[in-house]
Design brief:
12-stranded antiparallel sheet
Amino acid sequence: MRRNLMLALAVAAVLSLGAAAVASAVSTTLRAGNLIVTFGGSTSPQKLPKNTYTPVTTNVFGKIKTTDGTHPSAFRETLFNIDKDVKINVKGYPVCKAGQLEARDTKAAKRVCGSTILGEGKAEAEIAFPEQNPIKVPSPLLVFNGGEKGGKVTLLIHTFITVPAPTAIVTTVTIKRSGSGIKSVAKIPVIAGGSGSALSFNFKLGKTYSYKGKKVGYFEAKCPDGVFKVSVPKVVFKNEAHEPGAAAQTVLKGGLAVPCTPKG
């Protein structure tokens, strides 16, 4: 039970899209069953004002593998809540629509929606077809601004794989204000008909831009009390490749307190 809780905390640290990394570098390697998960991140700047939101840029990485080399369950969904010390701005930033990214490779996605990019890096997936050796497929990773509507901000994460056929994978992340903080839901599409699972990702996220004559950051944070609080009601892994011995679905949950350094 403790292993499941700790795994959820590590997942939250990365998938909060920077909240857990708004501090000194973070790196954690944990296990749940035969699953080994390593997540980490860093940010710039590391020291933040107590009462004023400041633009920040986050570097995030993650790795997922198994102890016996078998195909890992697919990471499919997460729900997480972040306290009021972190906020997101997208007003005045160019917008891309999911339909503009579908069926496009990385170069074409950049050509169509390059002005809306908020972050980029790389990812790797593993495709495991029955009675075949797993195939590792690397891909560039791009994060686009999907805009804001009805108080909800949308991010679009684009990767492009070439196995079993050239395919664009567009993950939607929905973020909305909840009380004094923000709530986010990320849903990862099925990869290769259920035969694919994410193995790793590494990306930089955050932009500073001008809105109504003022410099603002996509991510902004402050540090009044030396800690960011993140709760994770749900993290879902699914055994879509039907690996023997692995549960059909694993749902994790937990909470996280991440230190930051106040200044001023």
